[in-house]
Design a protein that fits this description.
With 478 residues, the protein is an alpha+beta fold. The chain is 46% helix and 9% strand. A hairpin with a 7-residue loop joins strand 5 and strand 6. The relative contact order is 0.07.
Length: 478
């Protein structure tokens, strides 16, 4: 009490006297560190509010503006707020170091000045918390958006983002498949993202991006949020259409009936293709390489709890290699459900079928394949050369015909250029066929598809084999 009375008397008799809190507040403006903290906080908060308003009103469409608004500016504001008390602490340490005596900090709510500063502190704290809360909420959604995933790291993710926009899942956000619900996987993905940011900054990322994706969340927590294997059953007719260089007008059409399978509501049995992911059935396998195109062992756990292991004697894991068993889920067959890259024959045949390429032009299919498969150094070079190259091929074949159909040849060239730009990125070492699908067995010779396991090579201890019977998965439609 005596100390407080003396302090009040000193303040009354000496208007310039400042208490310990006064020295702290004044030190914010006298200390370079404190002044820096106040400046950074003020500028960051002001720009932050402006950026959020502009973004919510839709005045800009730039991923780096969003990155700056929702990631850089909040970080700057937090750093500035931390610098202010740090500056006060460093200033008091400096006083004690030089033997300058300062009163202990006290909070006396009966003192109107202390109450005023306490109320101001609470108000500023609430304002800062509200600002950071709003920005944090919007920043969370921004970092989860396909726009952020595909545009911020544009040079790296451009191929994947382009394929995503043309895919059946174009309306599903990237996070819905790559992260899924829950905070734990969100945190894991952001920690992994820091490593990827470093790789981009140091230009040490893989070209092309490796597939399959390591540590991808199990499909039960992502794909099956929308697709329910319990309700897969029956058949689906799939049609394959193709042309040939000898006959580019009349397509060859093949129809098959796929046994979609899953849970049969009539027999209560699990059957068909989706038997692999049916309830109470667990299929796991041991890959022999990182791409999972070679399988060494397959293990099947039946509903009764029994397990059977099949071994492929023709596949050996190289010495020094270590691969872990993987429980089979959707991604092991549907390995390109969203980032789908087409093949050149498929794009050319689709052009003929959709009349984007005029089949009346002699040799147009063969020349189209030559033009689209040509080794261009970059997409920019393809934009300059592809259409003219197709025209040159046609002129070398039939000059009169090329002149007659010049407009249609160039229109076909524009279609082929679009197909090229959507599937090939020389800068990322991504060419035709870099990413193949495991659906079916059209790339079986390269280790893709069903024949990785259904190849007559896997046998258990009793000599039973994994069947390659075609009728397991499909038959001719009735």
């Amino acid at each position: 009490m005596v100390q407080e009375d003396n302090q009040k008397m000193n303040e009354e008799n000496n208007p310039t006297h400042r208490g310990p809190w006064g020295h702290i507040i004044r030190g914010m403006w006298r200390s370079p560190l404190g002044l820096m903290g106040v400046t950074i906080t003020t500028i960051s908060a002001t720009l932050l509010l402006i950026g959020v308003v502009i973004d919510l009103l839709g005045f800009f469409d730039n991923p780096y503006a969003g990155f700056f608004t929702y990631l850089i500016l909040p970080a700057g504001m937090i750093i500035g707020l931390l610098l202010i008390p740090l500056a006060a602490y460093m200033r008091r340490r400096k006083w004690y170091k030089h033997g300058i005596s300062r009163d202990h900090l006290q909070l006396n709510l009966s003192d109107h000045r202390h109450r005023r500063w306490a109320i101001l502190f609470i108000i500023l704290t609430v304002v800062n918390v509200v600002i950071l809360g709003i920005v944090g909420y919007e920043g969370y959604h921004f970092t989860e958006s396909p726009y952020f995933c595909g545009k911020v790291c544009h040079s790296v993710m451009e191929p994947e983002y382009t394929a995503y926009k043309n895919s059946p899942h174009a309306k599903v956000g990237c996070a819905g498949c790559h992260i899924g619900p829950g905070a734990s996987w969100y945190v894991r993905s952001k920690i992994s993202g820091l490593r990827q940011v470093v790789a981009v900054a140091t230009d040490s990322y893989h070209k092309p991006i490796p597939a399959p994706v390591e540590e991808l969340r199990p499909a039960q927590h992502t794909c099956e949020e929308c697709h329910w294997p319990e309700k897969f059953h029956g058949k689906r007719i799939k049609t394959f259409t193709s042309f040939s260089n000898n006959d580019q007008k009349n397509p060859t059409t093949t129809e098959i009936a796929l046994h979609i399978g899953g849970h049969n509501p009539v027999t209560e049995a699990f059957e068909g293709i989706h038997w692999h992911v049916s309830d109470n059935v667990e299929v796991s396998y041991l890959p022999a390489n990182e791409k999972r195109t070679e399988i060494a062992r397959v293990r099947v756990k039946s509903p009764d709890g029994s397990e059977t292991e099949y071994v492929n004697s023709a596949v050996e894991i190289e010495e020094g290699e270590h691969h872990e068993w993987r429980v089979m889920d959707c991604i092991d067959c549907h390995n390109r459900p969203t980032h789908i890259f087409k093949m050149p024959e498929e794009r050319v045949d689709f052009g003929l079928e959709s009349k984007k390429i005029n089949a009346d032009i002699p040799g147009i299919r063969e020349d189209s394949l030559k033009a689209i498969k040509r080794d261009y150094e970059s997409q920019e070079e393809a934009k300059k050369l592809l259409v003219d190259y197709l025209m040159e091929l046609q002129e070398a074949r039939h000059p009169e015909v090329a002149q007659k159909y010049e407009e249609e040849i160039r229109r076909a060239g524009e279609y082929l250029l679009e197909a090229y730009l959507n599937n090939v990125w020389p800068r990322m070492d991504l060419d035709w066929g870099t990413y193949k699908s495991h659906l079916g067995h059209q790339y079986a010779d390269e280790g893709y598809g069903c024949f990785r396991c259904h190849n007559w090579e896997f046998a258990n201890e009793e000599g039973e084999i994994i069947s390659q019977d075609c009728m397991l998965c499909h038959d001719m439609p009735m």
